[in-house]
Design brief:
Oligomer: single chain
CATH superfamily: NAD(P)-binding Rossmann-like Domain
Low-confidence stretches: 1-10
Radius of gyration: 16 Å
CATH topology: Rossmann fold
Helix content: 25-40%
Shape: globular
Distance between the termini: 37 Å
Number of helices: 7
CATH class: Alpha Beta
Largest sheet: 3 strands, parallel
Strand order of the largest sheet: 1-5-6
CATH architecture: 3-Layer(aba) Sandwich
């Protein structure tokens, strides 16, 4: 059974592919879902995701193994609308709200965030071995979505060199 945890609001992660010959647009896709589909374990992993509605839809399309969706937000009043939307658009997935991110992170193999948090949301000591942690939201040195332990336990992949100077988790670690 796959799992997903979504959080709103988000910082978008989008990629566009253009023809090198004509400059015509060829494709546009969510970057965090693409990273999850490429870096997650090849066997169908459970997925814990913390994302906005359009990114949630992208992950559900990229990771077909998701059958249970847990919705979480730092602001307790916000998840109800996303729960209702996902229940309507994905009736085959069990959608429910989770009380804390820690309880979900400790159980899952794919954890992906897109927040503007200035405090770590993910504690590295709670991550499962070989878990995929996708961080999208940090774009200033003051922002952090995970603690230093999460970085110590894994390998870092970036999509843009500027992340080494902008993403709070990486700036602090380097």
């Amino acid at each position: 059974m796959g799992w997903a945890v979504f959080q709103i609001p988000t910082t978008p992660s989008a990629f566009s592919l253009f023809s090198s010959a004509t400059g015509a647009p060829l494709a546009s896709f969510d970057g965090s879902a693409l990273a999850s589909s490429l870096l997650a374990s090849p066997s169908p992993p459970p997925a814990t995701l913390a994302l906005a509605p359009y990114v949630a839809e992208a992950h559900l399309a990229a990771l077909l193994c998701i059958s249970r969706v847990l919705v979480w937000n730092r602001t307790r009043a916000k998840p109800a609308a996303l729960v209702a939307m996902l229940r309507e658009s994905h009736p085959a997935a069990a959608v429910e709200e989770v009380g804390t991110m820690d309880e979900a992170v400790a159980e899952e193999d794919v954890v992906s965030f897109a927040t503007g948090s200035r405090e770590p949301i993910v504690s590295g000591e709670l991550l499962r071995p070989r878990a995929l942690l996708g961080l999208v939201g940090s774009f200033t040195p003051a922002m952090r979505e995970c603690d230093d332990e999460a970085l110590r336990r894994g390998r870092v992949f970036i999509d843009f060199e500027a992340a080494m100077e902008e993403a709070g988790e990486l700036v602090g670690a380097v």
